[in-house]
Amino acid sequence: MIEVNNLCKSFKKQNILDGITLSIGDKDKIILLGQNGAGKTTLIRCILGEYFPDKGSVSVYGSIPYIKREDALHHISFVPQIPPPLNMTVNELLLYSSGLSGFCKEKVIEYCDMLDFDIKPHLTKTFYKFSGGMKQKLLIAIAFARNTDFYIFDEPTANLDTAGREKFYIMVEKLISDKSFIMISHRIDEVKNIVNRNIELDLGRIIRDEKV
Length: 212
Prior knowledge:
The protein is α/β, with parallel strands linked by helices. The protein has helices at about 40-45, 70-75, 90-100, 105-115, 130-145, 160-175, 190, and strands at about 1-10, 15-25, 30-35, 55-60, 75-80, 150-155, 180-185, 195-200, 205-210.
């Protein structure tokens, strides 16, 4: 599914990833751990094709994401920690996203409801004016509606309250129990029942990779 081989990435002569080798297979449910600056987000961005490696390689379902990004991202749904400042209405966002991915708008509405967010009164409102929690719930709903093979969650519950976090984890168990994912999270106790593999980075290297 995803193969990372001797991946190195630096910025301004500072090594961020230092020889990462990683294989992610079917139904791997990974929590990605590490202190700030350990390289977690950089690794994710290399998998998403946003960064070109200085050395090594990344393969996503047989495609090189920084060369054939559209082919690679066809298999991935991504929820960022910081929602992008999109200057479009919810309707426009759903039209654009569904046009690229082919998902059903009604599914997004259904999944927002599962997060206790009634999106219907907000369809003509501009996304970037939403609260952090509203943005995060909408992006989560879109990610699940895409129904891809693989999911990447970068601190997906950072802007959610306790009830919202609980509902998100219920959705993970219900909707993608047969899928694979990577989740960056500092809330280890909250995710321990939904992951089966712990990977920890430190100074750009994998220092722990174990099944749980």
